[in-house]
Automatic annotation (TrEMBL), chain A:
<keyword id="KW-0003">3Fe-4S</keyword>
<keyword id="KW-0411">Iron-sulfur</keyword>
<dbReference type="InterPro" id="IPR001080">
    <property type="entry name" value="3Fe4S_ferredoxin"/>
</dbReference>
<dbReference type="Pfam" id="PF13370">
    <property type="entry name" value="Fer4_13"/>
</dbReference>
<dbReference type="InterPro" id="IPR051269">
    <property type="entry name" value="Fe-S_cluster_ET"/>
</dbReference>
<keyword id="KW-0408">Iron</keyword>
<keyword id="KW-0249">Electron transport</keyword>
<keyword id="KW-0813">Transport</keyword>
<keyword id="KW-0479">Metal-binding</keyword>
UniProtKB/TrEMBL annotation, chain B:
<dbReference type="InterPro" id="IPR050446">
    <property type="entry name" value="FAD-oxidoreductase/Apoptosis"/>
</dbReference>
<dbReference type="Pfam" id="PF07992">
    <property type="entry name" value="Pyr_redox_2"/>
</dbReference>
<keyword id="KW-0560">Oxidoreductase</keyword>
<feature type="domain" description="FAD/NAD(P)-binding">
    <location>
        <begin position="14"/>
        <end position="320"/>
    </location>
</feature>
<dbReference type="InterPro" id="IPR023753">
    <property type="entry name" value="FAD/NAD-binding_dom"/>
</dbReference>
<protein>
    <submittedName>
        <fullName>Pyridine nucleotide-disulfide oxidoreductase</fullName>
    </submittedName>
</protein>
<dbReference type="InterPro" id="IPR036188">
    <property type="entry name" value="FAD/NAD-bd_sf"/>
</dbReference>
<dbReference type="InterPro" id="IPR016156">
    <property type="entry name" value="FAD/NAD-linked_Rdtase_dimer_sf"/>
</dbReference>
<dbReference type="InterPro" id="IPR028202">
    <property type="entry name" value="Reductase_C"/>
</dbReference>
Length: 77, 463
């Protein structure tokens, strides 16, 4: 599972993410963005492309390149 | 008690964060980013790892996600000891210890308080406990409400038409559910954006099939013999049948656990200086206790040093970063929290965004687009300067007006703007229900390109 968040203060509704990873991001109305904050493993590549393509760098995804050491810590607590 | 030196603190100090949500997490990441290698403890009363709340009233209610899927991504590993599901119950400022509900005490050298707010409950506790009555603040609230909406209630009543209440009503309509919104004020969003914009929000609701009732209060909720809510009584004498009620009456600060500690914490939050250091009850700033996020109240130089409480996602992130930076810096390296307030909301298919402090505005002008088209920019003026802006599906203009706010640009907006319509030439009263009357003072402008090299320039009053 990949966790993500979009800084919607920054997001300008350019919709690049919705083109590149349509299973995760969708435009809602003319410039609003709706997304699922958790994505399946199979979306990893598309999500990486979407995050890289966002012109305002509003998309934060963890777990993308490596398994963050310590990310499991919260689940164990 | 020896005051540890900064180097020693960074190497082997003890930092405790109370409130393991957005502000707490982002602060913890910044603390590690700054090279802190000591012990870091995250104390949170919710049993979950930090998660994001805004989706709870949007994608989660629309069935595009679930409340369980909102865990926040990490910017980096934080190597913390997590005490989740455990509330902090007290603070001993002299001994520098946080007391926990399980009786344990956690010592600290630096403490960050990020305990946020909770939903204001329905004032009548017995009515509030009826089956079918909800609030929406936590992951558990989101799960419970989404499940109930899935079951297809006959009518949902939303009490309070602020941002959260309006978003809930919007989600209900999008799902084809009948929804009534009861609002004490004259229009939705009127407290945050004023009556001129509130009128647009009211039209949006009605066009989308919301049974919007303004100027009324819900005086009581009624249950059936099995303890399920079945009706609400309104101050205009009417009774409304409803099987789901969402109480959306704003928030209360989570500061009770600090009662008697000597910290300046109360119902209005925890006051801190511009560097996020908490004040004690004597009005003296502490040097080891910091505050960030929804629970904080901090003076903002751009807005006459008024203490602002901002229940905004972006504020929690920015203030957490500043607090974390400052707790690991010598005094001359500290930074003020001078984030320009900003938020977004999405309702009825419209993307609403704002910068600055619209509620300080006394006048508004529509500088781009038109209200009739539901696509416009409204600029708020206060004492001859631009103080805030709001956009409906027009967010590309916001950054420009943010600069106008930062540089205390004059109001009314003098230049001819792109896409200006005839009704946008003159300012009209912004029509806030209870205009605050802040004092005259020196103005401050912000300069510099990144938060790190932002500078403040003082301009004496009466320029
Ligand atoms: C439904 C909803 C929709 C929203 N939508 C938007 C939006 O569209 N745009 C926007 O800008 N903002 C939005 N927000 C606001 C945004 O989510 C908050 O500003 C943000 O969550 C603040 O983060 P925080 O960490 O300061 O506080 P919180 O997220 O409130 O976290 C505080 C944490 O501390 C815990 N805690 C409290 N007391 C104790 C204690 N004694 N011991 C241990 N732990 C404790 C709490 O349980 C909680 O987990 C929304 C909020 C909600 C609820
Ligand atoms: S690509 Fe970035 S700016 Fe565009 S919609 Fe997605 S998040 Fe927003």
């Amino acid at each position: 599972m990949l966790r993500l968040v979009v800084d919607l203060n920054r997001c300008q509704g350019y919709a690049q993410c919705a083109f590149l990873a349509p299973d995760v991001f969708a435009m809602h109305g003319d410039e609003g963005l709706l997304y699922d904050p958790q994505a399946e493993e199979a979306q990893r590549e598309r999500l990486a492309q979407a995050a890289a393509a966002c012109p305002v760098q509003a998309i934060l995804v963890d777990d993308l390149d490596r398994d963050l050491a310590g990310v499991a810590e919260a689940r164990d607590a | 008690m020896h005051e540890v030196t900064l180097e020693h603190l960074k190497r082997e100090g003890r930092i405790v964060v109370v409130g393991a949500s957005l502000a707490g997490l982002r602060a913890a990441e910044t603390i590690r980013d700054k090279g802190f290698t000591g012990s870091l403890t995250m104390i949170g009363d919710e049993p979950y790892e930090p998660y994001d709340r805004p989706p709870l009233s949007k994608g989660v209610l629309l069935g595009k996600s679930t409340a369980e899927r909102t865990a926040l991504p990490r910017r980096r590993a934080i190597d913390a000891e997590w005490r989740l599901g455990t509330a902090a119950t007290g603070l001993d400022m002299a001994a520098r210890r946080v007391k926990l509900a399980d009786g344990e005490e956690v010592p600290y050298d630096r403490l960050l308080i990020a305990t946020g707010v909770r939903a204001r409950p329905w004032p009548n506790a017995a009515e509030g406990e009826l089956d079918g009555v909800f609030v929406l603040r936590t992951r558990d609230d989101g799960t419970a409400l989404a499940r109930r909406l899935d079951a297809g209630p006959r009518r949902v009543l939303v009490i309070g038409a602020g941002f959260t209440g309006s978003e809930i009503a919007s989600a209900c309509r999008e799902r084809g559910l009948e929804v009534t919104v009861a609002e004490r004020g004259d229009a939705p969003l009127v407290g945050a954006l004023g009556g001129v914009i509130g009128a647009v929000a009211a039209e949006l609701q009605r066009e989308n099939g919301v049974d919007l009732r303004t100027g009324v209060m819900v005086t009581g909720l009624e249950g059936d013999s099995t303890g399920r809510v079945r009706a609400a009584h309104l101050s205009d004498g009417t009774t409304l049948e409803c099987d789901v009620v969402v109480v959306s009456l704003g928030a209360q600060r989570n500061t009770e656990w600090l009662a008697g500690s000597g910290l300046g914490a109360g119902p209005r939050g925890i006051a801190c200086d511009a560097g996020c250091r908490a004040f004690d009850i004597r009005g003296i700033v502490t040097d080891d206790i910091y505050v960030a996020g929804d629970v904080a109240r901090s003076p903002h130089p751009l807005f006459g040093y008024q203490f602002l409480s901002l229940e905004h996602w972006g504020n929690a992130v920015s203030q957490a970063e500043t607090a974390a930076h400052n707790m690991l810096s010598v005094s001359t390296d500290r930074r003020p929290h001078i984030w320009v307030p900003a938020f977004w909301s999405s309702q009825f298919g419209v993307n609403i965004k704002s910068v600055g402090v619209p509620s300080m505005g006394t006048e508004i002008m529509i500088t781009q687009g038109s209200r009739a088209e539901r696509r416009f920019t409204g600029v708020y003026g206060y004492q001859g300067r631009v103080i805030g802006a709001v956009t409906f599906d027009n967010s590309r203009w916001l950054q420009f007006y943010q600069q106008q706010i930062e540089t205390t640009a004059p109001f009314p907006v003098p230049f001819p703007t792109v896409d200006r319509r005839p009704d946008g030439h003159r300012p009209v009263p912004a029509d806030f229900p209870d205009p605050s009357v802040p004092t005259h003072g020196p103005t401050i402008t912000l300069s510099g390109y990144s938060p790190a090299d932002r500078r403040m320039t003082f301009t004496p009053a009466g320029h």
